[in-house]
Structure formats: C-alpha cells, structure tokens
Specification:
- The structure is a homodimer.
- By secondary structure, chain A is α/β, with parallel strands linked by helices.
- Chain A has three domains: 45 residues, 434 Repressor (Amino-terminal Domain) (Orthogonal Bundle); 125 residues, Rossmann fold (3-Layer(aba) Sandwich), CATH 3.40.50.2300; 131 residues, Rossmann fold.
- The first copy, chain A, contains 14 helices and twelve strands.
- In chain A, strands 2-1-3-4-5-11 form a six-stranded parallel sheet, with helices on both faces. In chain A, strands 7-6-8-9-10-12 form a six-stranded mixed sheet, sandwiched between helices.
- In chain A, helix 1 crosses helix 2.
- At the A-B interface, helix 4, helix 5, strand 2, helix 6 and helix 12 of A face helix 4, helix 5, strand 2, helix 6 and helix 12 of B.
- Chain A binds a DNA duplex through helix 2 and helix 4.
Chain lengths: 335, 335
DNA sequence: TTATATTGGTTAACCGCTTAACGTATTTTG
DNA sequence: CAAAATACGTTAAGCGGTTAACCAATATAA
C-alpha cells in the first residue's frame, strides 16, 4: 500500500494525499481531507520512512549519543538506562526515533549521523577528547546535556550540579561531619563531577571545612577495590562521610563498606547523587541528591524539537534544580 | 557527497560504484575497485541509508520489541537494560540498527515495522494478548526470545528456565529448606515464570517437597508491599526460603525483608534469577541462577542475520544453559 | 465590468541508491 | 578461424514520497 494507491482510490493526485498526511491543508477542501483520511484508515496505510527521508533530506531520527566507558554495556549504568529510556518515550511522543550510540567509536557515530540524515542530536556527558569532531556535527540542531562545555549555537539542558554539591556539603556539615571525602563518578575527568565537587567545597566552606586533597578521589576505582578503600579508612584522619558523584558509585561504596564490616551509617556515612531506584535498594537506603530525569528528558526533547522545526532560534540553556532526599545512610554526629 | 559524485570523479557509472560499495566485485577490475575505494576514503562519503532502504525495499533496521509494564520506563528493569544493550552492540557489529519499542502501544509497533521496512525483528518476553497481531509481522525474519509460544516459521532463543528452577529447588532442598515460596517476576502471566516455577517444583519433588499453593505468588506485589509480606511471614507455616523469578524481585524482597527486620539469610533465604550486577549489590549478596546475557544476545543476532541473508532457512531453536552462583543469601539449615 | 484574490487542486522533477538488462572488447574453446 | 565465454563495464527504470511551479474556477474588490 503506497501513497500513490491511496491517491488513485481517492481520485486525487499524490500531492494532495501528501499534503493531507502532513497536515498542509491550506489548499485542500474539508471533504477531500475526510475522504482521504478515511481511505488511509481503512487501508492501514503507513508512509514509508525511507522515501520521506529521501525526499525531505531529513529523517525522523534523532541521534542520542552517550558518553560511555569503553567496552561496557552502556545500559549497565542505571542513570544512563533511566535517562535514555525517558528520552526514548519523549522522542516517540513527537514521532521521532532515537538512534542510540555510545562514543566508543567516534567514526561510526559521525558516519551514522550523516548516513541517516538525522533531524537532530542529543549528547549526554562530556567528551573532552572528541570535542573537535563534535563540532563537525552541529550542522544539525543539537542539545547537550550533562556537560558544561559550549559550542556556539548549541543548546544545553543541565542539572544544577553546583547546588547539589552545596546541599550535600551543607547537610553533612550540619550533621556534624568534619572529615569528608568525595568520589567522582566518571573514569574520564567529567565536568559534571567537577561541578558537584566544586559545590561540595563551597557548601563545606560555609562551615570552614576544607576537603583534604587525598580524599578527593578522581575515579571510583577505590570503591571497587576493598584494599584501597581499607587503606584510606585506616588513616588516623579518615573521613567519616563520603559524597559520591552518583548513586551507582554510592551503592558500590556501601557494598564494599559492608564487605569490610564497616557499618553504614554508624561508622561511615554516604551521600549519593541522582536518586535512582538503586538508592532505595541499598542497605541502608541511600540519602542522595535527587534530580527529575523524566522532566529533564521532557525539556531536552522539547527544546530539540523546537529547534528542528524552526532552525533560526537562538540557543537556549536550562538548568534544573536538585533536592536532598533523606534516607538512612548518614549518621548524625551532633550528640 | 553522493554516490553520483563519487562515480563522476572516478570516471565510472553509479552502478559500478554501488557494486564496489556492496562488495559485488564479479564485474569490476581490481584497479577500479581500489581507485573507487580511495576516492570514498578521501571524500568521507557515507551512503544515504534512506536511499538504500528505498531502493532495496529493506532497511538496515531491526525492530527490538520488548514486553513492558505499561507506563514504566522499560530500562528501569535491569534485565531489559542489560539485554537490550547487548543486542544493540551485536546489531551494530553487523551494520544493523535497533528500533527499540515496547509493547505498550501495539498499533505503533506495527506501523513502525512497516514504515521502516525493517529487515527483521527480535521479540523479548511474552505477549499473550497480542499474539494475533504478532502473526501479521512474521513476513520478516523474526527471533523470539524469553518466551515459549511458537509461531510456525519463527526462530527462538531461550534460556533453560526449567533447569534453572530445578537447580534452585535442588539447592534449597539440599540446604535443608522444606517450606518454600515462589515469586513470579511478571505482572502478566509469563511463560518464563511458569517454566521457572515448573522446574522449581520438579527440583523440590525429588526431595518429596511440594509447594503450598498460597506460597506461589503470581505477581511481585507482595514484595513491594510490606504488609502483605508480613502477613505471609507471620503464618505458622511460613516459608524459610523464597525463589524469585528474577534478581530484580529478589533485590526488592531483600529490601523489604530488611525493612521488616527479618535477617537474610538467618531468618529468610532468598534465591534470584539472572545474575545481574544488582545481585552483587544486595545485602547480603544474592545467590542466583546465572544466564549469560551477552552470549544470548550474540546468538539471537547471529540467528536473525542468518535468516535475513537467506530467507528460506529452516526455523531454529536454541536453549542456553544456566548455572547457580552461590553468594550469601541462603542459610544452611542442616546443622 | 474588469482586475485580483482565493480556493482547491495537478504536474512533474527530483531525493540518492539499486539492479535487471544490455553492450563491447578480449580471451578461450572446438 | 568462427563461436562462445569471460571480463568489465553502462543504461535507465524504478523505489515512494515531497514540493515548487503551475492552473482553472469561483469569489471579491475596485
């Protein structure tokens, strides 16, 4: 069943059918519209995406490019899974399809974007090494998320990571913690981590607490390696609380602490970031900074679609707030 | 940059370039091949997928259709996330792209498959209510996974759920447990759950243990609702161990048990299924039946590609083994 | 009444790639 | 040495839509 057949049975030209399908009704009578729509309904006709893409030089595909740890299943990261899932439903809602790629092989990504004539792109995460290549892609409307570098003319949706860090610092200080540690989430240096750390420092500074350099851990490696963690905790000035740049790292930290027979929160307190479902499954349940991933996905896709429909819009930047969700992973040292 | 331009600068026809790109070298001299390939390299030409799909009446897209809980982000289920991630990398390896859809809105799925001229489809999960509609899709090579119903002419890759259930029953019986419970994973009745349950019954039968009907819970609702769970556990004949049809349910069960101040495994033992990363993060770490999801994805995609390339192959069925991974969520009651 | 819009269409040239059918030389075979 | 086969191509007709340009009939304005 093709558009041409629809046109024939309706007794009109293919142009008219095409206009009806695409809602260009300036030059079609109400009668004709209804007749054509009925025929489409009854016949179960579905437009051919390839033909449409070819003619319009733009497909209903949006590239979703995720910063990934090489050779790791990208959806093993629960944040990525949740976020990409949310982006997917938002894209479908607008009639677009996600083309999900990780940055593992950059050449493939670039080839895909060109080969599929994508209508737009969504980047998640930081891509310091790929920055130059990314520039070549911005011919197409793009929204960057979860990163802070800017390419002129691109859009951005982020989370207020600095505030999140501040809230974490403020909360832990108020709970009486004075010796603190920070654990980054990413393997590469990530500017999201940097902002969370910066906020954390600011939050603590209000209480005249400074972070010992040794306790700013730039990768989550220590959390996966019990020996490294034990070394750190056996120091006389060992931290009493950890702020982790993600729930994933926090969950792993709690696990390792349990394994080493440290009690959370009695011996060590832990604060996470993201408020993923994981945060309710740790033992004890995790106190964490919450972000609304569904809302973020909604804003991202909305912004992208807007820029796809109208190419000359000015670039936009949106920052989403975060809030503290108190569970049971932080001890109150005040009495 | 189009194929036509490549042809012009190489001084050949578009047909020849097309043949070189697609590896049909029967009628192209080695010289010409090399010349064209060089030009393609230098120019960074990438074929237009839409044009190719249109001409071939088949796109490089494979539909991946996932049984989903309505209105739940499909990747919140860690099994689904892991599996779809693995399928994605396997599909990319063969030059195909996943079009990921959940069964939420069946009409959309069918429309997509037609609109995109997909080369094949992979189904995951059971779709009892949609069965009739699925039949209309099998014009295209299809592999069913994680389900047991058959449509003539379709392929199947599954996990040996019955053996898994048997192993669980055998293990728990050997550990001295006599009063047992089973918790299903799916909200709908799922035949995967049924097979795991059946195997569990068989495993227990070898020790003359039968499952009390009250303790065969057809949905994970009890696990999310502390009151329901408490009621069950306060019965005089309460089970000493639970076999959960998935790690996800097991993790939630452990959480609820912790919340109710039952000790795992001292008071209650738990066995899961899947061996997801989650299984290492529970407290205590979860004893579970492991399946190799990467291997499954590999087999599924391999099988599908084979049937895409050669349409008249006989349908295939493959069953993958499972094994027990012993961690710390089961108590030994023997002494 | 004539010029001008407006309404409701049609025509046909693409979009970029594939592929069946059709050529020539050149080589091989009987 | 003629016929057949082989090597190395080319031509051109699609695939199924989109869209700029064009047109006829009717309504409106001057």
């Amino acid at each position: 069943m093709t558009l041409k057949e629809i046109a024939r049975t309706a007794g009109v030209s293919t142009a008219t059918v095409s206009n009806v399908i695409n809602g260009n009704l300036h030059h079609v009578s109400a009668d004709t519209v209804e007749r054509i729509q009925n025929i489409i309904q009854e016949s179960g006709y579905v437009p051919n995406q390839a033909a449409r893409s070819l003619a319009q030089r733009e497909s209903k595909v949006v590239a979703v490019i995720i910063q990934a740890i090489p050779n790791e299943n990208i959806f093993r990261n629960p944040y990525t899974a949740e976020y990409v899932g949310a982006l997917t439903v938002e894209l479908y809602r607008h009639g677009y399809f996600p083309l999900i790629r990780s940055t593992d092989d950059y050449r493939d990504v670039v080839a895909d974007l060109r080969g599929w004539n994508v209508a737009g792109a969504i980047f998640s995460g930081t891509f310091p090494r790929h920055l130059k290549n990314i520039k070549s892609l911005t011919t197409v409307p793009t929204v960057f998320t979860d990163c802070y570098f800017r390419i002129p003319g691109t859009n951005h949706v982020g989370v207020d990571d600095v505030s999140g860090g501040q809230l974490a610092g403020d909360y832990l200080a108020q709970m009486g913690h004075k010796r603190l540690a920070f654990i980054a989430n990413s393997i590469d240096e990530s500017d999201v981590d940097q902002h969370r750390l910066q906020g954390f420092r600011e939050g603590l500074a209000a209480y005249d607490i400074t972070l010992t350099d040794d306790f700013v851990l730039p990768t989550p490696a220590n959390v996966y390696n019990p020996d490294l963690l034990k070394n750190l905790l056996q120091r006389p000035d060992a931290p009493t609380a950890f702020f982790c740049a993600s729930d994933r790292v926090a969950a792993q930290l709690i696990q390792t602490l349990n394994h080493l027979n440290y009690r959370v929160p009695d011996d060590i307190s832990v604060v996470g970031f993201d408020n993923l479902p994981t945060a309710e499954l740790t033992h004890p349940p995790l106190t964490t900074l919450a972000q609304d991933i569904d809302q973020k996905a909604h804003l991202v896709v909305d912004m992208l679609i807007r820029h796809i429909k109208q190419k000359d819009l000015a670039p936009e930047r949106t920052l989403l707030g975060v809030w503290l969700v108190e569970r049971q992973s932080v001890a109150d040292l005040n009495n």
